[in-house]
Design brief:
ATP binding; 309 residues; alpha/beta; 2 domains; 14 strands; Rossmann fold; six-stranded mixed sheet; Alpha-Beta Plaits; four-stranded antiparallel sheet; 30% strand; ABC_transporter-like_ATP-bd; nucleotide-binding; binds adenosine-5'-triphosphate; AAA+_ATPase
């Protein structure tokens, strides 16, 4: 792939915190590497404490890595050139209570070197884009959590960044708020922006992302396209049998990864085609009746639970 198609490149990034007073070391991120391509919506997943926020803080220049490097469109993080290409939405965006969305987003624009009439226009455009134009001049303290999140989103967009980095953008929102933020992410990706976001809401990730990376205790434990992650794992099937005689029930249960028997009906879970074949052969030989064989597709959640917990 041409270098210009990689928007975010992370190489062996590591962060070790040293606790004050005790001097105890916490290896929050242990040398992770990943690449995000232009136009991707990339999901950065992991359970609590996996190191997602620490990584995002390094990518946005808020903390310095212990070692390793990251580049954004070829510019070294945290240079002003790299940071100018990034729009960042923190997990719980803090917005000064007495400012209005217009004032807050303008402030963020000015911090990104914008000013004058073009800033005023950009502020109105992004606030309209995130759907809170009606509240543009209300003090932030009067806004709901969802509206605050949108104000933060508008602030991340005001300088038209190439890359959006969003830390848990859907967390704490109700289902409607979550859908609205998902729609915003999709619209921004369609408009040509690359989106990198952390989340542990896997259904949202499955809906939005083509590629993901799963972090566990500071290390990447799985990564790639969702399709490849779901595709390479062992296929499971569920087999439902009727009229299973006692003498073959134990044998069948031994061939399955899970089994349940109610009366003469048995439901078995088989891993892989070989196990399915053997169970069916033994069941038919024992005069059981095969009611159904259903392939069970692994979900992202199954993979997450298996790899990350
Ligand atoms: N400033 C700090 N000093 C010491 N340890 C820290 C510091 N910041 C984070 N950690 C530790 O680093 C590890 C990773 O934390 P991090 O916040 O990056 O995880 P996370 O994946 O974002 O989790 P969550 O989903 O809960 O936000 C945790 O063990 C955390 O306690």
């Amino acid at each position: 792939m041409a270098g210009s198609d990689i928007v975010l490149s992370v190489e062996q990034l590591r962060k070790t915190f040293v606790k004050p007073f005790t001097g105890r070391k916490v290896e929050a991120v242990k040398g992770i590497s990943l690449e995000v391509e232009r136009g991707d919506i990339f999901g950065f997943l992991g359970p609590n404490g996996a190191g997602k926020t620490t990584t995002i803080k390094m990518l946005t220049g808020l903390i310095t890595p212990t070692s390793g490097r990251a580049t954004i469109l070829g510019e070294e993080v945290p240079s002003p050139e790299a940071m100018g290409k990034v729009g960042f939405l923190p997990e719980n965006p803090y917005v000064y209570q007495y400012l209005t969305p217009r004032e807050f987003v303008s402030l963020c624009g000015r911090l990104n070197g914008m000013g004058g009439a073009s800033l005023a226009k950009a502020v109105e455009r992004v606030i309209e884009r995130v759907g809170i134009a009606y509240a543009i001049d209300r003090p932030v303290r009067a806004l709901s959590k969802g509206m605050l999140q949108r104000t933060g989103f508008a602030a991340a967009l005001v300088h038209s960044p190439d890359l959006l980095i969003l830390d848990e953008p859907m967390s704490g929102l109700d289902p409607v708020g979550r859908k609205e933020v998902r729609d915003l992410i999709v619209e921004e990706a369609r408009a040509g922006r690359t989106v990198f976001f952390s989340s542990h809401i896997l259904s949202d990730v499955e809906l939005l992302c083509k590629r993901v990376c799963i972090l566990r205790k500071g290390e990447v434990v799985a990564g790639g396209t969702i399709q490849s992650l779901l595709g390479t794992d062992v296929r499971k099937s569920e087999i439902t049998l009727r009229d299973v005689a006692d003498d073959i029930a134990t044998t069948l249960a031994g061939l399955a990864s899970k089994s349940e028997r109610v009366g003469t009906t048995m439901v078995l879970e088989a891993q892989g085609d070989e196990a399915v074949k053997e169970i069916l052969e033994r069941a038919l030989a024992g005069r059981a009746h095969v009611e159904a064989v259903t392939p069970k597709r692994e979900t992202l959640e199954d993979i997450f639970v298996r790899k990350a917990l």
